[in-house]
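Revision sheet: structure tokens.
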Amino acid sequence: MSPIPVSDGLTSRYIEVIGANLHILERGHADAPQKIVMIHGNIAAATWWEELMLALDPAQYHSVAIDLRGYGDSEATLPLDATRGMTGFADDINAVVESLGWGKHHYIGHSMGGSVGYAYVLEYSHNLLSVTLVAPGSPHGFGGTKDVEGNPCYDDYAGSGGGMGNPELIRMMGEGYRGTESPLSPRNALRNLVFKPPFVHPREEAILDALLATKLGEQFYPGDKTASPNWPMFAPGRYGAINGLSPKYERGHELASHTGNKPPILWVRGEADTIISNTSTSELGYLGKLGLVPGWPGEAVFPPQPMVDQTRAVLDKYKANGGDYQEIIFEGCGHSPQAEDFERFLPLFQTFIDQHQ
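Predicted:
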């Protein structure tokens, strides 16, 4: 059984793939006509999808939520090779799907899970009926780009990658700290960044368990970094998800010219998201502009990254190239609209996948 509590009605088990024994949560009959794979965000785990899994009719939907390698209760015997962007995670998901004997299925990913979704489409679109991206990262990566086209601020992609991890948050994660005294504590990160206050997740302790279960270090979270002569004096390394999300390696923008099957995409985001935003409080260009990171070279060199505009531009090209997408904005929600307004999200998601069986 999973050390992270599992709600009644869900099955917790492990599936072995190359390099890792991945933990999954599962609900629904194996012969249910619709299959859904669910992927969590960074410093999170499969438990994030429990409400959605339990709300879906198990006779109609067979849903599987995966703890990616290095997260939740999955093993982390091999780190993510960040030089392949999110493709290593996509390969793991495909291995799980194949072990389940699935053919056509739906994909839903939150935050980093949305970025993994880009890679999953690029590599395995032939098996996809639909893709739901909830507060996804920019297809051009996180940090270090200066315009809608995703051009880097510096040739070495300085200002992105493993050096972006907050050392105080990481220290408290390593200590398993569950308090609220520090504004940078893991619990406060959930309450003030991942969710829009005053929302508190009804299963906050399990969500915090998932955050604290993240494997730490230079090969996992936050990953390694390399020295740079450019502000803020670090560039991407080669291991772990934050490096995989660097624009040096992120491939999501290739959706614009993808030539394979083009599954319909539902893009859901919170209007008050402060993590994936044109004014992200986690991105160094915006923090520098606010005067919170010393040495900022100015807006002409390192402006705030226009993350939402970048995503829309890539998806517009995806649509012009024969695909389709719709953007839905949840007013009053932050980075996790699927949790913050579940009563609105559930029928939206279910209607979307039912339209694309």
